[in-house]
Design goal:
With 363 residues, this protein is of the alpha/beta class. The protein has one domain: Rossmann fold, CATH 3.40.50.1820. It contains 12 helices and 8 strands. An 8-stranded mixed beta sheet has the order 1-2-4-3-5-6-7-8, sandwiched between helices. A hairpin with a 2-residue loop joins strand 1 and strand 2. The protein is globular.
Length: 363
Amino acid sequence: MKWTRKPVGSMIAASVVALSLGSQSLAQEKTRAIESDGSVHVPAFTLPPSPYLSDAARAALPRTASDPSAMLDRLVQSGAVPKVRASMRKAAAGKVEALRRQYGVSVEETEVGGVHGYWVRPTARPLGRHRKLLINLPGGGFLVGDAGSTGLIESIPLAGLGGFDILTIDYRQAPEAQFPAASEDVASVYRALLKIWRPRDIGIFGCSAGGLLTAQALAWFQKQQLPAPAAAGIFCASADARWAGDSWYWQKAMHGLTSAPSLDERYYYGDHDLDDPLMSPIASDAVLKRFPSTLIITASRAGEMSAAINTHRLLVRNGVQASLHVWDGLDHAFYTQTDLPESREAFDVMVRFFQSNFNQRGR
């Protein structure tokens, strides 16, 4: 190929034209105002499915807008929360049984430390393998979390794939109770388990409100002078009760909604100060420094993503071994859609994380 040199004058002229076009573009952009405090008025745009999604995940994307927060508000105002919570177990029974068969586990109702729950145990644990235990805290906005439905759906695959015993529990929630009732329940369960298991053989995890409660429980363990478990999983959540940051504001738009975000958990929070480290552990470096190794899982269309990223940043800043995994194009609590390839990836990440941390602690 023969290269020709453009005259310097032509290059300068081209640059002037480009600058002129850039100025016109900037003038057009003035309608997209930025306020004095840095707030941006974001124009409407079309958000296509992420090209990184599996075919199954793309097919599972919602086709109609729905607002779970508005639904929870209606349930609270009508007094129907306890009734709905009780009905969830029956509604999930078919899926729970299918998962139990698929992953080869047993499910047994129990009570530990005065708290109701279910044991999930692999039926074919390798001989000679030392038992490791995970405590699961189901999600549901501190309103409709239920060990027999949402708890089992996220515990069964992890127990089957990882060979863990998992105890999923029904901690107290709103409207019957407020903070710190759930933290007290988790501590009661943990204290009872410590009579049988060593801390280095115990992990704790939860999704959504259960993920936040995982962080709150770790802070509560410190207050009660209980030893830290071997590892923690803060999934679909953060260690910040405000659920704040950029993603908190753009989440509704990503779901075809125009309403402002609201805290489903506010009914459980009551009037408690959200900056209390027992409520939002990110408020205290001293508390975060004593966290065990922590895995954080989120997704780019999930409202908690910014807070999850910030929690990871603060844990790392405080010397904690923390790992952050973000799936693009997926929503809050995506891995509870257990048939998606991305969900299997997430469970595999969890298994490797907990197994690695249990192995580092020794047998």
